Structures are given as C-alpha cells and as structure tokens.
Amino acid sequence: RSTYIVHVAKWETPASYEEDHVSWFHSSLRSVSESAEMLYTYSSALHGFSARLTPEEAIAMEARPGILSVHPETRYELHTTRTPLFLGLDRNAAMLPESESGNEVIVGVLDTGVWPESPSFADAGFGPVPAYWKGECEVGTNFSASSCNKKLIGARFFARGYEATLGPVDESKESRSPRDNDGHGTHTSSTAAGSAVAGASLFGYAAGTARGMAPRARVAAYKVCWVGGCFSSDILAAMDKAIDDNVNVLSMSLGGGVSDYYRDTVAIGAFAAMEKGILVSCSAGNAGPTASSLSNVAPWITTVGAGTLDRDFPSYVSLGNGKNFSGVSLYKGNSLPDKLLPFVYASAASNATSGNLCMTGTLIPEKVKDKIVLCDRGVNPRVQKGAVVRAAGGAGMIMANTAANGAELVADAHLLPATAVSEASGQEMKNYLSSDSNPTATILFEGTKVGIEPSPVVAAFSSRGPNSITPGILKPDLIAPGVNILAGWSGAVGPTGLSEDSRRVNFNIISGTSMSCPHVSGLAALIKSARPNWSPAAIRSALMTTSYTVYKNGEPIQDVATGKPSTPFDHGAGHADPVSALDPGLVYDIGTDDYLNFLCALNYTGSQINTVARRNYTCDAAAGTYSVNDLNYPSFAVALDSPVTAPGGGSDAEKKPTVVKYRRTLTNVGIPGTYRVSINLPTTAVKVTVEPPSLTFSQTDEKQSYTATFAAEPMPSNTNLFGRIEWSDGKHVVGSPVAISWT
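Structure for Subtilisin-like protease, as requested:
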C-alpha cells in the first residue's frame, strides 16, 4: 500500500452524512477496503482525506459516488543580517510599523519546525496574541506548551504521512514534535519574521543586528519535513490547519517538481488559502540555470527566485607559481601554517573513478596527509567534501566549481581551512597541478566585506522559466536575497548539518531559494500590516510592479550563470523593493472568479476544476471563449508557435504576424492622477499597442482597464524577446515584464 489523496465532492454529501462528513469518508474507505488506514481528513485546504491504499483500491475508490479524484501523494524536498539594510528597510521608518498593526499579522511557515529558544523568537515588547488566532502549541518530544510565547504563537507537527511510508520517526535523530533538529525551519521562520537580535553573527562573519523582514509579526511553525523528506499528505494537513488557525501569510520553501494544478498538492491547498485572503509564498526551486526548471508555478502562488546581497566572505588561494585566486569561505578556526603546503588534486589521491569529488572513503590518507586537496563540486554536500579531506588527514581543501555552477560561489562554514573557487580558477589550478612536479598552495581568509558590486545578481541555482505548465503565465514572479543569508539556527545541529560537526551556533549563513521565499513572505506581512484590506493578489502585484531590473547606474541586473544581463525568465518582474511596494500607485487585483475562469481557459474537465476549487463549478459556455491571456496578472508571457525554422523561411501565410490580445484592469490604491503608458521592447519583430494610452483615476479603489495587443512576426523556434510595459503618473512607476517566446 501507498498513500493517496482522495478528493471528495462536498456538494454530493449524502443527506444522512450532512452533519458528519468524516463518517462519510470512513464509510467510503471501508467500501473499498476493510483494513485500509486513514491518515488525515481535510476540510479547508481541500475536502477529502488521505489513506493507505493498493493501486487496485485507489482505482475502486475513484469510481465511488462523490469522489472527484484520487492521486498518489508526492514527496517534496526543501529548497535549501544585512538583508533589511540591502532592501532599504532602514530608509523608511513607515515600513517597520511599531504600531499594533504590525503585531497583528501572523506568518505561518511550513518547514522542519522551529527551535523556540532561538533569540529570534524573543517576545519582549509584544502585546497579547491576536484574538483571531485559533492555533495551538502542540506538545511533543522536547517541546511543551510553554515553548511558545507572544512571538512564536503556535507550533504543530505532521508526521502521519511520513511514518506511513518510512516508518516511525527515529527519535534518536529528530524530535517527534515541532522542534527543529535540522535548522532549515528556524532559518526560514526567522528570515520572514524574526525579532531583532543585536550582535548576531556566524563565527564573527556577517556581524550586526539580525532581524526578519517583518520583525513585529507573529510566527506559527508547522513541521512537515523530516529526515526522509516532506510528504504531501502531511503538507496538506498543515495547510488545512494553518487556514483554520487564521494565518495571514503562508511561507513554503519546498517543492516537488511540477504537475497540472489538479494534481499539485501545494497548488490545491494554496487555492483554498488564497480564497481566505492568505498570501502563499513559495520558493522557485534550486534547479537553475536550466530552463523551465521551476516549481510552484500556480498563478495564485507567489513564486520567488534568488539573488545575491552586496555582502561577501572573501578568501584567497595562493599557488607556488605566484598566482592568486579569489574564493569565499565561512571557515573559523586554526589558520594554516604560515607557508605554502603541498597541493594535490583529489583524483590523484584516490583509486575511485569519482575520486575528484572527495566522497566518503575515496581518498588515500598517505597521499593527502598534511596537504591541501583540490576537490570538484557536485554529487555530495560541499561541506562533506571538507570533512572527507579532514578525515583522511588533509590540511585544507579547495573546492572547484564545475560547468554546472560556473562563477557562482556559495560560502560554507567548513570544518577545516577550505574555500570555494570558480570553475575557471579551478581549471587553472588543475593545469598548475599537472605541470609542476612540486605543487604548493595556501588559503587566506579575509572575513566579511560589504558594498560588493554588482549586486544583486541572479543566483545560478535559482530555477528559471519559462513556465512548463502554463507558458502564458510568467514565472518566477520576482527575486529576493537568497545567497549567504544569516538567520536563526537550531541548537541540535552544527552549521554544516554534518553529524561530525559538534559546533553549535544561534545563527547560520546558508543559501537557496528556500532563503529568498521567506524574505518575500515577510515583506508581504509588512505590506499586510500597513494595508490590511489588500488581497493576496494586490500584495503580490505591489511587490512585482515596483521591483527593479536595473542597477543604480542604469545597467541591467546580471545573471551570474552567464555573466550577461538576466531576463524575466530568470528574475520575473525584478528584484523586490519593499519601500516602493508599500506605495505602488496601482495594482493588478485578482479574485477567486478570475482564477476559476483561468482554469476554464486551460480546458480542464469539471472534475479537475472542482478538485482545485472544492466546489461544483461549471464553465459557462455562453460566456464565450475563456483565455489565459485575460487573467489579470502583473506580467505578460506571450507564448507563440513558430511556423518557420529560419528567418525568411516558410510560406507567405506563415510569414503573417500573429496577433495576441491581453486585457488588464488596474486598481488605484494611491492618490488621484493620470497614468501614461510607455513600452520598451527593443525589437521590430513585435509591435505592441496599448489602448487607451492613458488612464485617469479620480478616487481610491477606482478601476480602469486597458488592452495590450502584440503583433508578432514569425521567428525561429526557441527565440525569446524581452521588454517592459510601464504606467506612470510622474511619481509611481507600475512596471510589468514582457517575455515573448516562439516554440
């Protein structure tokens, strides 16, 4: 047996079960199996239950009256300070409300749990818990009701799906409770809404005051991820509770590939959350720079990619031939001897075919003892490579990027003197090692440096568009800081996460879209506290349309993976600018009916739509044709079929331009004024017309609509063009990225 999610049509509940739908669920389950185990029942994130079924029982269940669909559960993975200053939150006191409104916003985080003793969850100065909060502090191993306070107001854990698949939680490795034994959940929670902590650092690196994006917001932790992963039956149960608990924002730094929305657990739960006014922020994934590598692409989810900060942790490698190379490291400990040491490439000190990767047990101790070892990045964790070198008697490690990572450097708190260097630097070192009979090297550590330019740049690991499920919706939505982020950490594990790392820290520096997601979750909470009546779509629109795509010198944001300007497939609308987002001027709002029309435009069946929407909804044939292009999204993804294989090829009919129309509605959330459109599309292959070219708003909440028409010449397959459409009243700029692609 394996776990299946069973979606039930609430409107088909038999009269005899109307007062007790859970009994109907049990009756339906017993009708296909007397012995099948029910794990959870769901009422908010979806209507239905999860159970352990054989494939035959699942087929039989799907044929039962009132059953919409039965899907096997999905295993999800985690998408594994200076930031408030970098984002400009210090410039505008209004962005950091000290008023009670900031205290009334609750950020729910689905992750590995929480370390309640972290100073990031101190509740000094917080008033009573908001009256609308319905959650609780769930008791479990090493976690009591007193573990929560006025800052960390709730904590729950969900393990039934995990245990049904992998057996009981191993309590020698992790707590069967909300307690975080991994560190990831504490890091994401404190990034979103951690209290201000003076004197924070990791071994002296990144020293300063650490605070979350919304330091006055409350935190609710939902532990859904365990050593063996995060299972969708548990994730749904947590979303179900979070919705009932009345969180305002849901932050989810996890993903499990992509699938149609009616099969996507997170998308289904997020739809229900959106209907309750809860903004759901998810990480885009760490599968970049590969195209179409995104997770969490539903249009009612805010999808966040990762960029860098203007802070770095430089180190330097000096070789015996006099050449020097820059790297990054968070190593803190005994320095290397004040001399050059013997230097060896791991593949020359191993009999394994993958000896260059420094995997456990592959190094020959007598060939690495007291030497600096060059290891290639990939396959096993970066910090584990250093631990392998140390265990074999090596003095230090240099980890060289491969083509997959290029020039992107991620700092780690290594267990021995170690640094990461770029692919190009690594190749030069390999050339030196192969050409010198007595190669030597050393590593110097330089601490923390700020003011690094250019910044931000898009992280190479950040997953990229286009959107493989709905090419007509541009994803990611935006980027936020996700590289070398300092935030709270678990006291149960060292900063590397390795079992041999006995060090314990209050704060750690890690990277991933897991880190960028809670930045946006916290910024959404800030905006929610200032604009409590805004919908999730309005908040996302404010963040997107005020994002920036160029540096202060006017040059475009760079992509570290290519060394060239990044595109909307990399950065979405751009990099978050929360100061501007509080006063965006206009927003693109989207309601539940708009999303239902979007599902109709996808030509989903009634059962598929009802699985997502949890209601008996029928697309209106009399309403005419539905179009994905009419979803009121703050960006434009123009996906075109390419009839030609080369410029100038094809018949006359194939050379005719394709005309595509998009309808959009803007809502005034600022002062009255007239906004005029400007179009920036550096190509003659596409002509863009916006009608009307100006919109006048005389009052707040007034709505005005426009049509954007794209007349595109035929282009070869895999051609991409990018631009922007902006509306401005002279004070506000409401920007939308444009991505045009021929497939």
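Residues 632-742 form a domain with the Immunoglobulin-like fold (CATH 2.60.40.2310).
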